[in-house]
C-alpha cells in the first residue's frame, strides 16, 4: 500500500469520526443530556465526572442551578454528555495527527493539502470553544445552530482534501452544476430549520416532564410546519438531480447514495411526526441529513 492510499484512508477515517461525533451530539439531544455536564471543560468541576451524588463537590448546587433540563444530579445524563465531549476531544487528536502528517509529507509539493488540514484543526478547536459557549448559554438556539453548521464545515474539509488528491472530475453542463448547488443550499437550509424545531421540541418535552409524547408535535409552532413542508421541496430537488446524473456512469453512485439518503431522512422525519417522536429517530434523522449535505458537496466537487 503506497503513502497516498494510506493518507486517503486516514482522511476517510477522520470524516467517519466527524459523523460519529455528530451522531453522539444527536444522542445527547435525544436523551435530554445537553446540560448533563453544566460546566466546561470540566464536569461538575471534575475532569472525570461523578457517578453518584456522593461524589459531587460541596458546592455542586451552583452547577445544578444553571441547568434547564434536569435540576437534580443524573449520572445517566452526565456520562452521555461526557462521552460526547471525549469523542470530540478524540476527534481533535486524530485531526492533529492528520495535520502533522500533512505537513511532513506535503509541505514541499502540495501545501494546499496542509493548509486544508490545518484549517480543519483550527475549526475543531473553534468547535470546542463554541461548545463551551453553548453550555454557558444553556443551549441557546442560535449557538446550537452555529455548532451544527461548524460541524458540517469540519466534515466538508476532508472531502475537499480527498477530491484534490483524486482529481476525479466529470464534465457536466451548467444546469446540472446549478441544480446540485441549489439542492445543497436547500438541504443546508433545511438542517438549520431542523435545529430550530429540535430546540422547540426540547422546550415542550421539558414542560411536559418528558412524557405525553403524543402532544409534542401538535404543540410545535409555525417553524415545524415550514420544516415539514420544505422537506418535499428538498426531496423534489434531490430527485431532479438524481434523474439528471443517473445517466452519467461516473456520477451514478453519488446519484444512488443521494436518493437513498434523502428518502431515509424523509422517512425518519415522518416517523417522528406520526409515531410520537421515537427517541432513536431523532439522532438518525440528524445523521442522515448531515451525510446527505456532505454527499451533495462531494457531488458538486466532482462536477467540472
Summarize the helices and strands and which ones pair or pack:
Layout lengths: L2 H28 L30 H4 L10 H32 L4 H26 L4 H26 L7 H34 L14 H24 L3 H26 L6 H22 L2
Can you give me a brief rundown of this structure?
By secondary structure, the protein is an all-alpha fold.
Can you offer a commentary on this structure?
The structure is a single chain. By secondary structure, the protein is mainly α. It folds into 2 domains: about 1-165, no CATH class; about 170-304, Four Helix Bundle (Hemerythrin (Met), subunit A) (Up-down Bundle), CATH 1.20.120. It has helices at about 5-30, 60-65, 75-105, 110-135, 140-165, 175-205, 220-245, 250-275, 280-300. The longest helix has about 35 residues, at about 175-205. It is flat, with a radius of gyration of 21 Å. The chain starts with a helix and ends with a helix.
What is the radius of gyration?
A: 21 Å
Question: What structural category arises from helix and sheet content?
Answer: mainly alpha
**Total helix count?**
9
Strand percent estimate: under 5%
Number of strands: 0
Cα-to-Cα separation, first versus last residue = 29 Å
Shape: flat
Which blocks of ≥5 consecutive residues have pLDDT under 50? none
Order of helices and strands: HHHHHHHHH
User: Helix share of residues?
Assistant: over 70%
Tell me, rounded to a whole number, the average pLDDT.
84
Largest sheet: none
Domain count: 2
Amino acid at each position: 500500500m503506497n503513502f497516498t492510499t494510506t493518507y486517503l484512508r486516514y482522511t476517510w477515517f477522520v470524516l467517519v469520526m466527524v459523523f460519529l461525533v455528530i451522531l453522539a451530539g444527536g444522542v445527547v439531544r435525544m436523551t435530554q443530556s445537553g446540560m448533563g455536564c453544566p460546566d466546561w471543560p470540566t464536569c461538575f468541576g471534575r475532569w472525570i465526572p461523578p457517578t453518584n451524588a456522593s461524589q459531587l463537590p460541596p458546592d455542586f448546587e451552583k452547577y445544578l442551578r444553571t441547568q434547564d433540563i434536569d435540576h437534580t444530579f443524573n449520572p445517566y445524563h452526565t456520562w452521555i454528555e461526557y462521552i460526547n465531549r471525549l469523542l470530540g476531544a478524540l476527534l481533535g487528536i486524530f485531526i492533529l495527527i492528520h495535520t502533522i502528517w500533512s505537513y511532513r509529507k506535503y509541505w514541499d509539493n502540495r501545501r494546499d493539502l496542509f493548509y486544508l488540514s490545518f484549517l480543519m484543526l483550527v475549526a475543531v478547536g473553534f468547535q470546542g470553544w463554541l461548545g463551551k459557549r453553548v453550555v454557558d448559554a444553556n443551549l441557546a438556539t442560535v449557538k446550537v445552530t452555529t455548532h451544527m453548521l461548524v460541524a458540517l464545515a469540519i466534515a466538508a474539509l476532508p472531502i475537499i482534501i480527498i477530491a484534490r488528491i483524486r482529481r476525479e472530475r466529470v464534465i457536466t453542463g451548467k444546469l446540472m452544476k446549478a441544480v446540485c448547488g441549489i439542492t445543497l443550499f436547500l438541504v443546508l437550509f433545511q438542517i438549520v430549520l431542523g435545529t430550530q424545531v429540535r430546540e422547540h421540541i426540547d422546550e415542550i418535552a421539558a414542560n411536559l416532564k418528558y412524557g405525553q409524547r403524543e402532544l409534542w408535535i401538535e404543540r410545535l409552532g409555525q417553524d415545524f410546519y415550514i420544516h415539514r413542508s420544505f422537506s418535499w421541496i428538498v426531496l423534489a430537488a434531490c430527485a431532479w438531480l438524481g434523474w439528471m446524473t443517473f445517466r452519467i456512469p461516473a456520477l451514478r453512485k453519488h446519484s444512488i447514495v443521494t436518493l437513498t439518503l434523502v428518502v431515509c431522512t424523509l422517512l425518519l422525519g415522518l416517523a417522528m411526526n406520526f409515531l410520537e417522536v421515537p427517541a432513536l429517530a431523532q439522532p438518525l434523522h440528524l445523521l442522515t441529513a448531515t451525510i446527505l449535505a456532505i454527499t451533495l458537496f462531494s457531488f458538486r466537487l466532482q462536477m467540472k
